[in-house]
Records
---
Amino acid sequence: LIPADPVLEAAARLSAAEHVFFECFHHIVTDGWSVTVLNGELSEVYRAFAEDRQPQLPQLERTYADFISDQREQLQSESLEEELKFWEDRLAQLPVLEFPADRPRPSKRGHRGETLFRAFDPEVRQAMQKLADEYAASPFMVLTTAVNVVLSRYTAQQDISLGVPMLGRLDPELEGVVGLFINMVVLRSDLSGDPTFEELLERTAEANLDLYDHQEVPFNLVVDRVQPAREPGRNPLFQIAVQLLNTSTSGLNIAIPGVTVEWLNLSSERARYDIALNFLDSGEIVTAAVEYSMDLFDRWRIEALLGHIETVLRAASADASLRLSQLPLLTEPEQAELLAVGRGEVVPYPDVPLHVSFGKVAAGAPDSTALVC
């Protein structure tokens, strides 16, 4: 069933020169790519009205209804069994990621959430691109490898699974269509054998290619086929999701002549998973918008997680031959804090021979002359 108001758009006038434009879409009718399409057409319509002309919008060869029809046909074909068999084998004996939490996991899953926003230094984006160029990988593969390194060091687990949204627009004729196309898939990574970052990146790239080849099976059918142990307080198959968006998939492409557009970060009050790591690549910097469960985590832990991902990216960019166990996690402030705690209070050290100190102890407690000797 489609909600009565799946799309909500509103504008608020703050002053003669300042306005807030608000877009709210139910996920049942749109996704990130679709918002980019909508905002691109919205910009064209605004320019056309300002120039007193008819908007020039693309003519679509296919519709969302065509996509749904094709999907239903596929789900009734023999190829569905082959795809389900792939996921059954790929996700067999999948371990649960035991990410450290600040509170015990509730017996019943809650959705109370918050979003942490952070803009990384430009050097972080440069480090990601450097690794991607050197090893013929995508920035997403590089970022996911760094995330897996951190999660493995947190949990001491070598079998890590992440939720990854796939675009689902395999037909180029669907690129201009608005609708919900994305499908969640599970990226399962093997970190055994203390591999180097370069080796891990190669493993991640291979696993990603498998995802592209098997991305069309709806997530709920995969869950039904794999039959993981269900816990009321956990999302099935994965607890942490990762995605890297750019200007073509993030919806940040409104361009109106004579208007300066600024994106306003709006924190979510709900958490779909334990943690959803959403990264936006503007081409110059990477910004994180991390949606996390407040029932499990305090804000400082999510801040630390982002800092550790950054540290791994910087270290791997400088030397990708570092092994999983060698890659640093702690940020410079964390290192300084730990060193300060380890130093302790400076106390005076007696400048006398050791046997003289023994004698003083014995003289002060004659019955203890033997425990001193």
Note: The CA atoms of residues 139 and 326 lie 22 Å apart.
---
Amino acid sequence: MSEFTTKQGPEGFSVEWLSLRENADHRARSIKLTQKLTDWSKQIPRLNVIELGAGTGSNLRYLCPLLGHKQHWTLFDNDLTLLQSIDSLLVDWAVKHSAQVERINDTLHISSQHFSAHVQWQHCDLASHLHGLPFNEAQLVTGAALLDLTSARWLEQLATNCIKHGCASLFTLNYNGTVDWQNSIAEDAQVTSLLNLHQIKEKGFGPALGPDAHAFYRQSLIGQQQVFTGDSDWVLGNEDLDLQQALINGWAPAAIEQGPDASLMIEQWKEFRGAAVSQRSSALRVGHTDVLGLPVG
């Protein structure tokens, strides 16, 4: 779903956009799946985590306090600008959680009464170097708002690596194709249809599966791991007006790119939806699905 917003350039999404969506992301996540993961993690003396498409570290900031002590995270992303923001953001976050932070070489050591983690980050082209990541050293592979940007071939490789090396995996906030506006109008469905077509275009990983990605990944794990899914819909109201406006601003050009003949309708839709945000009378639900795979035995 992130792909519907404007990018800062070919390297990836902006720090500002990821910051804007973080609160909504954290509110949306499936509590059921998070609890299943934390219950499983209690069996692991030292939890080595690989995060794919880590961005600014939002997924770590959500999961790390829940997974206890002796975590080691390696964050991978292809965007150097995002990776360069991680240090200061994690330090600020750790301080807010009354955690101690120590830098040793290229590693942040974060520790508190309830959790501790060593955190590193690396630049990596995930589209072409997935096979080179240290799955053999990991117990958990995770990512957020990623799978819907990827292809069937890439997801098959991901599932194969997790199964082969006995890794659990949690991939959250995968867009599932539904957008429901309060006080809906006919144009909403037309714009969403265009957006869903735009979502299956090339995103850097091969032809993207878009709204079908979470189901494809789930099916790739079934029979080899325990697999669970859970809703993680964004529910956006008056506390999220800036995020709503950013979505409208990003969705309109994506829809026009997909359906240029409908550009006038889309511009009118953008004006209507923007006015509702300005009047504080806008709300919507954006559908996402989380997928959790746990090794058997």
Note: The longest helix spans residues 241-258.
